[in-house]
Amino acid sequence: MAASPFMHMLRFRVRQPQFYWFLGHFMTIWHFIRFHLSFFSSSSQRYHYSRVLFYVTITYGIVLYQFYKSGQLKRQTFLVQLRQLDNLQYFCMVATLYICSWAGSMVNGALYSPVIFALFHCCNYFKENLLPFLPIQPILKNTLNQRITFFIQRYNEKFLQMAQVFEIMCGVRSGLLGLPVEIVLLLTSLNVKRIASVIALLTYVVFFKLRYLHSETLRLLTREYVYKIDTYVHSSLPNFVPKWQGYKQFVSKLFWRLPC
Predict the structure, then answer these.
(1) Which residue pairs, CB below 8 angstroms and at least 24 apart, start in 127-133?
(2) Which domain holds residue 69?
(3) Among 83, 102, 159, 168, which has the highest number of CB atoms less than 10 A from its own CB?
(4) Distance (Å, rounded) from C-alpha 76 to C-alpha 53?
């Protein structure tokens, strides 16, 4: 019996790296959902957190491999390209966080922007490469196509800006609070998890600096949120203003001294 058009298409797709790129995004979303449903189990949260990072690393690895094959990515100019290529910056960040997660380290908020990207990549691939061949009624197929197209066109730009906001929140929280606290804890209790946490947080701060230098939109949004914090401190905590300004200047100096 002849294979259905869908199975024929599927056999063709599984020979393409893009299909596994799609599966990586799908599994990223699945484990992200499971991560948020596991709030009663810290061990389950750590597992799904690590799985999200693993699949995100795979998706960026596939893209970078294609870059490498086409000559766009070269080992000799790795550091130069790290300052220029978004995909390489994300890959290095999530790969390092994934390795650190083996020791139980978690960077709160680090998953949100990669998952947002995964959602739209997944929707677009499904709409363009799988939906046309699904063995369902044409009217249902057209409805799904229209709904997915509407979702992408209506929310893509808003969600991308939201992803940048999450990166700012995570970068600022990691630099101003998370990293200093973990360094103090590491000095009082030296263990593998503390070391991994410091490395993970430092990696995210360096990643944020690379994104800050590379993206004008991210710089504008960061200044806007810092201004809002300044306004809140001045209006609600006037006695704390000198300490806040001093701490902000100290962190800013350290931030600009980070190697990038």
Answers:
(1) 127/152, 129/13, 129/18, 129/19, 129/22, 130/9, 130/13, 133/5, 133/6, 133/9, 133/10
(2) 5-209
(3) 168
(4) 27
Query: Chain-centre distance of CA 152, in angstroms?
Result: 19
The predicted pLDDT at position 184 comes to 92
pLDDT confidence band for 3 (50 / 70 / 90):
low
Asked if residue 170 belongs to a domain, the reply is: yes
What are the φ/ψ torsions at residue 223 (nearest 5 degrees)? -60, -40
pTM metric for this prediction: 0.90
What is the C-alpha separation between 127 and 40, in angstroms, rounded? Answer: 35
> At residue 39, what is the residue type?
F
* CA distance linking residue 2 with residue 90, whole number of Å: 43
237 lies in some domain: no
**Dihedral over Cα of 79, 85, 86, 88: its sign:** negative
CB 19 within 8 Å of CB 121: no
- Tell me how far apart the alpha carbons of residues 74 and 50 are, in angstroms, rounded to a whole number: 28
Tokens of 229: 């914090």
Is residue 153 domain-resident? yes
- Supply the pLDDT for residue 138: 87
Alpha-carbon Rg for the chain in angstroms: 21
C-beta neighbour count of 54 within 10 angstroms: 17
Give residues with Cβ within 8 angstroms of 244, minimum separation 6.
230, 233, 237
Question: What residue type is assigned to position 157 of the chain?
Answer: E
Rounded CA-CA distance 130/141 in Å is: 11
